[in-house]
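so im writing up the methods section and need the N-acetyltransferase domain-containing protein record in one place, dumping it here so i stop losing it
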Amino acid sequence: MASIHFSRLTEPTTAIAEAFTRWENDQQIKYLARFNRNQADLDASNEITIEQLTQRIQHTAIYLIYLDERLIGEMSYQIDPPLLLQPEANSAWIGITIGEHQARGQGIGNQALAYLEQQIAAQGLSRIELGVFEFNQPAFALYTKRGYHEIGRINAFTYWQGRMWADIRMEKRF
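--- predicted struct ---
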């Protein structure tokens, strides 16, 4: 049976940066994880460096997702970032990426979200906010199943398949 575990990122390595870069540029998922203003943004390649990850962990808690000792994804949260739709003290903004194809659709995102919620609650935070693009129905269904509800939409937020789509903002309170 596959073993899933999570580890907080404290020391970025070349291998971790390479995995993040691969996921960031994966045509099958990059439109799900980052907003794009146009086709050029969607087509652009990005490199994630050790230096960028080192800077990122100064203000973002990043957890690596492992399946049988193989790095398959990452999840993170920030506390009270400026991008919150409803700025409220003690709020976490979260993101989850299951980067490796063979790990998707197996319930790992649900397990990762449960773990991330535990970490956030342990920090004494009382609220989580997230954004999910309106075309990402599997993620929307997962968040709804886990008790998140829609609090607003930012229309014409991201580009995909020749048009602009909304960002659905959702929250969960503890």
